[in-house]
Amino acid sequence: MLGEASATGRRLTRDELEARRREGERAARAGARLRLLIRAHLAAAHEAQSQVAPALAVQMSAGVEQAVDAFIEGYERAQSNAVRQEEAARREFIDDLLYGRSDLGRLAERAARFGLRLSQAHAVAVAEGREPYGDGYPVARGIEEAVLARFGNRHILVATKDGRLICVASGDQPEVLTYFAKRAYAATDGGRVAVGRPHPGPGGVVQSYEEALGALDLAGRMALDGPVLYAADLLVYPVLARDRQAMEDLVESTLGPLRQARGGPGPLLDTLHAYFDTGCVATEAARLLSLSVRALTYRLQRIHTLTRHDPADPRHRYTLQTAAIGARLLGWPGGCAG
Questions:
Q1: DSSP codes joined into one string, 270-296
Q2: Are the beta carbons of 178 and 158 closer than 8 angstroms?
Q3: Of residues 180, 194, 131, the one with CA closest to residue 151
Q4: What is residue 12's DSSP assignment?
Q5: What is the pTM of this model?
């Protein structure tokens, strides 16, 4: 091809260049190393140039450049297509894994391709920040690189889902999720991370993922402190919320009288939350609410008068605290009938 082009001084034709691109694609799919291929092209060009007159050898150089550029273009195009296909397959797998929309046996087979052994127990950590994150975001890439650099190929999957950062790890490697949580908290500028409990089998990943999502939802509704939440530590809340009607009855019967307070139930309900969150230490609760201890004490007395339950009395405290937790879970008074 170079000989024919140099004999007439013409440039390579469109068909000739496309043939070079196809050869580049074929070489990439075969797994050939590009550096060795370029070296082979240049060696062949050098041999062809040595067999012609110097003037034709100079003309041939332009054709060599065109041919090599076209070959590289085809090679890189094939690699880009392969990357996109791999990313699509990975995204499809993650969606199926976290939502359980695929045959579990087939899902376990596909998991091996991405470094997971679903016959083992796995736990899932979910991180959310001030903004949604996708697979191509620098934050997601940085966290994935940091986790894999720290732990290597230890059956770990780091990805994104619905704008959140996800880490799936073997249930006997809690240090992986702890490290992920630390990196995610720092990278998301003070976001929140929840960790589900380890569960066995292909369906265990979904269960742990849903627990982590539930913990994040609880954290928002309950104003829970701490950047990292563990579903195992929050099991009491789903239990309390399981019988919604009973919880609504408890909240309304116990806290309903607070509606009679001047300004509505809000300030007194906030007082209860602060009082219980600080371990029933009046000075700490007053500081949390930016009140004097005297003002806090007055509010507690007012709560006692209206509800007939004394927050300072251990006999009444459990009922009041359970009702206050229920109010947070239900969004009371706005989210509860009565």
A1: HHHHHHHHTTS-HHHHHHHHT--HHHH
A2: no
A3: 180
A4: P
A5: 0.66
